[in-house]
Design brief:
This protein is α/β, with parallel strands linked by helices and about 425 residues long. About 45% of the residues lie in helices and about 15% in strands. The structure holds zinc ion.
Length: about 425
């Protein structure tokens, strides 16, 4: 394909690990840049002249730019972060957040508002997504073709190939609703849809825990603990979605010996025992039974029960708040221990509203995992709270787009578009 634009000596079809040459070089710069030309030559194993020719092309079409590091003389190459933009959308059950991001998935600006996914139709909610995205385009003064793509994270299982939610348990009106084609009618760029937990895992891979933990961290779990509990599974840097896109639905793994009824119809599911709703229910019971003076006082003042409130209670010395936090952590940790034995991740990062239960919650998860997993699997295992928190949804949705748009095969096409 690159021949048509007078490409360097080698054809685009020449494979580097089964990919296109331009795409491979661009991916290396995306993943590891800023890099010196020599580093890129070393990482591709291609001839220096070939790499130089492609780099010149990537720079001339504006996808890559040169940068001289402070105090240095030689140029480094990095993604031209302002060559285009992507929109990342995080859709929760009660909140919608839309972010305009650059080509390194850095958030430039966001717009958000309340939604009710159970009651509102997909058309109503997605129309608001369109309005917010246009609003961001307007504010940034973007032209009609500045957007490279739109990514959405949905709180539902998603058929990734067909880009639509499937059998969502809490939002029945969304079952098989053609989310991507609805949005594609309003924009000229491609639209990608995935489960919110997978999207958050991408954010941890490129912008969060994986970049903070100095280890070989290509295999990890992102756990979103909120009303529901789910896990994003990253294997060798890629999201693992499973045969039908249902991988990581750990909220419905059974807790041995528990018979709490779950909204899925089963009994003893992790989220029915340790999810946000279960925790709020127990906290309210504790407030009414005088086991917790702190919660009783909050209830009296009409303050709603929240993870943040429980964390404050525990910090102020309320034993019942602390007990509730530790018990939720223990249930989640016991389940994660089984996954650790099975999957041997290099780290587990915790996000979602329950992460706001604080360090005692994370410590309780850690203790259960260490107690119940094999020593080899926990030897260097790190379990930590996400540092991205609310940003993970929109950032991850932007990365979803960038991964697709800048896949090996697409970079050649993009180069043509830019050159044309
Ligand atoms: Zn269940």
């Amino acid at each position: 394909m690159l021949h048509s634009m007078g490409s360097p000596g080698e054809s685009e079809g020449h494979p580097v690990n089964g990919s296109t040459t331009a795409g491979s070089i661009f991916k290396i710069i995306r993943d590891h840049g800023p890099l010196y030309g020599n580093d890129i030559v070393r990482r591709t194993g291609l001839a220096k002249s070939t790499v130089s020719a492609y780099l010149e092309r990537l720079v001339s079409v504006g996808l890559v730019r040169e940068e001289i590091p402070e105090g240095g003389k030689r140029r480094k190459l990095k993604v031209a972060e302002s060559a285009g933009y992507v929109v990342g959308v995080a859709l929760g059950q009660t909140h919608l957040e839309v972010a305009l991001c650059d080509l390194e998935a850095e958030i430039i600006e966001t717009v958000g508002g309340e939604v009710d996914l159970v009651r509102e139709t997909p058309e109503t909610v997605l129309t608001r997504v369109v309005e917010y995205a246009h609003e961001l385009e307007r504010r940034a003064g973007l032209g009609p073709s500045s957007l490279f793509g739109i990514g959405l994270g949905l709180p539902s299982p998603v058929d990734y190939t067909r880009r639509m939610p499937v059998t969502p348990p809490v939002m029945p009106g969304w079952d098989r609703f053609p989310v991507a084609s609805f949005l594609a009618n309003e924009f000229t760029c491609p639209v990608f849809v995935d489960n919110d937990v997978n999207v958050m895992a991408l954010a941890e891979r490129d912008k969060g825990a994986a970049t903070e933990i100095a280890s070989d961290s290509d295999c990890f779990l992102l756990v979103k603990a909120g009303t529901g509990i789910g896990a994003g599974i990253v294997i060798n840097g890629e999201i693992y979605r499973g045969a039908k896109g249902a991988a990581g639905d750990i909220g419905h793994i059974g807790i041995d010996g528990d018979d709490t009824l779950c909204r899925c119809g089963n009994i003893g599911c992790l989220e029915a025992v340790a999810g946000g709703r279960a925790l709020a229910y127990r906290a309210e019971a504790a407030a009414r039974s005088d086991r917790s003076p702190f919660l009783a006082e909050a209830l009296g003042k009409g303050i709603p029960i929240s993870p943040e409130l429980l964390a404050r209670g525990a910090a102020s010395g309320d034993e019942e708040c602390l007990r509730l936090i530790i018990s939720a952590g223990k249930y989640i940790g016991d389940t994660l221990a089984k996954l650790v034995n099975f999957f041997n991740p290099s780290f587990i990062v915790i996000n979602g509203r329950l992460a706001n239960l604080g360090e005692r919650f994370i410590a309780s998860i850690r203790e259960s995992v260490y107690r119940r997993s094999t020593p080899l699997a926990t030897a260097d295992l790190v379990i930590k709270k996400s540092s991205l928190l609310e940003r993970a949804g929109t950032t991850g949705a932007a990365i979803l787009v960038l991964d697709e748009v800048f896949s090996h095969r697409n970079v050649g096409r993009l180069m043509r578009r830019f050159a044309g």
